[in-house]
Specification:
The protein is α+β, with helices and mostly antiparallel strands. It has ten helices and 13 strands. It has helices spanning 68-90, 96-120, 146-153, 157-160, 207-225, 231-264, 271-302, 305-312, 332-412, 426-451, and strands at residues 2-5, 12-16, 25-29, 38-42, 48-50, 127-134, 139-145, 175-178, 183-187, 190-194, 198-202, 318-320, 327-329. The longest helix is centred in the C-terminal third of the chain and has 81 residues, at 332-412.
Length: 455
């Protein structure tokens, strides 16, 4: 290793290292001030700070490591050793600039090591593109990763699974989860996290997200003009309202079509009409299941006062007493407000529960009518098949009787002498006998089948 001073810069030293890689050299930048950091640079590589102090005791030279972790470990070790030299040389006194620079280097190392650990594990932290709606009605689009989302909302990683758009198929059921600082809403394609001063909407381009935004923004404008419910309750009501409006709209579009099919089907049975009935029935089953799931969610919330009170104390200095779930607040006025909000929440949930039950009941009635019509069609088709079977049986009996007569005719058609061919009336008598015998056999078979109630 050779150290060559630079002719142009007095504080620059260049030294070459003997290695297998060609043209590897390092630059040392030295400030004229005492105890200032020395910057180490490899050609084509950013500057690497190192805290050193000129001392006669030891001189250290090091090369850049192949990995970032090794490089930072060497820097931190060298910085710690130089600080020990400062303490030993100066009698325990430390330079504030050196100490500040050392702490910044260590902090940078820890940040880089944490990020490199996640990369080395092959885990890519998901980034969500959400719409953020403030309590004053300001709408903005932003990207947020899971770590920032957990920090801002106070949630746990398992809570994010209920609103993660990538898990839509596994979390398709409606849910309203109450946490300490946030409410997680999952209603159809709507995924949202409601907090005290904002709401984050996932997959905002879906039908549920657009309907929710259309229902929430007018309410926030009215909220700014006068006294209304808290922001998180406005968000919950807007989510329930948008969901109920979508279900009711689908029911209103489907009901006239089902009624028309029910009126047309008894007199007209075609493949197209039967296919329309099948698709309408399938839509009614889906609509009824969604309304039933939403109704069950609202019933569970109404039957659990603990969750309702957790919504009331959100953002306040209040707690729930263990055992009886009584609200305890540091300020008496907040307790009164929480009790009033509890009544409002119960009335709100009761209102949407009634609407949901009405929608679910109407869908079930239409579905029952469609099923009854299908049963009627099945009975009608069965009666028609029975008529066809009776006709087929009569034809088979007649064919049997005629086959017996054909057997007799075949016998007389043999080229053997029976001496009947010598008589003039033998042909007419034989023909009349075959016809009469076939008719008599047919009526005998018919009477037997009627007696056995087969026909």
């Amino acid at each position: 290793m050779a150290i060559i001073p630079s002719p142009f810069y007095p504080n620059l030293l260049r030294f070459y290292s003997r290695s297998s890689s060609p043209s590897i050299h390092y630059l040392l930048f030295r400030s004229p001030w005492t105890n200032a950091p020395v910057l180490l640079q490899k050609s084509g590589v950013p500057l690497l700070p190192a805290v050193v102090k000129p001392s006669s005791k030891r001189i250290r030279c090091f090369a850049r490591s192949s990995t970032e972790e090794d490089r930072l470990n060497k820097v931190e070790k060298l910085a710690a050793e130089n600080v020990d030299d400062n303490v030993n040389d100066d009698g325990g006194s430390e330079d504030p600039k050196v100490q500040q620079h050392q702490s910044s280097v260590i902090a940078t190392k820890r940040t880089s090591s944490s990020s490199s650990d996640s990369l080395s594990l092959g885990i890519r932290e998901p980034v969500y593109e959400v719409v953020e709606v403030k309590s004053n009605g300001v709408v903005s689009t932003r990207k947020i990763n899971r770590r920032q989302l957990l920090k801002s909302s106070g949630l746990r990683p398992r809570d994010i699974r209920s609103v993660d758009p990538s898990l839509f198929l596994t979390n398709s059921g409606p849910s309203l989860l109450v946490r300490e600082r946030a409410i997680l809403l999952t209603l159809g394609s709507l995924r949202a996290i409601a907090m005290r001063d904002c709401v984050l909407v996932f997959d905002y381009n879906s039908k549920g997200g657009k309907a929710f935004m259309d229902a929430l923004l007018p309410r926030l404008n009215n909220m700014n003009g006068g006294h209304c419910m808290p922001f998180e309750l406005e968000v919950v009501e807007a989510a329930l309202l948008s969901r109920m409006q979508r279900l009711e709209q689908r029911l209103m579009d489907l009901e006239p079509r089902v009624q028309a099919l029910l009126e047309e089907l008894p007199n007209k049975l075609t493949g197209d009409i039967l296919e329309q009935l099948r698709t309408s029935k399938q839509t009614l089953v889906e609509l009824g299941s969604r309304a039933g799931a939403l109704r069950q969610m609202l019933l569970d919330l109404l039957e659990d006062p603990h969750e309702i009170r957790r919504i009331c104390i959100m953002g306040r200095n209040c707690t729930l007493r263990k055992g009886n779930d009584d609200v305890e607040c540091s300020v008496p006025s907040e307790k009164l407000i929480a009790e009033e909000e509890e009544e409002e929440i119960e009335m709100l949930l009761e209102n949407y529960l009634q609407r949901c039950e009405s929608c679910h009941g109407q869908a079930e009635r239409l579905l029952d009518s469609a099923k009854e019509m299908e049963d009627s069609i099945a009975v009608n088709l069965s009666s028609r098949r029975l008529e066809v079977s009776r006709v087929e049986l009569l034809l088979q009996v007649g064919a049997f009787c005629v086959a017996v007569g054909a057997l007799v005719a075949g016998i007389f058609g043999m080229n053997l002498r029976s001496y009947l061919e010598l008589h003039v009336f033998a042909f007419w008598v034989t023909t009349a006998g075959i016809i009469v015998g076939a008719v008599v056999a047919f009526f005998l078979m018919y009477s037997y089948l009627r007696h056995r109630k087969i026909l």
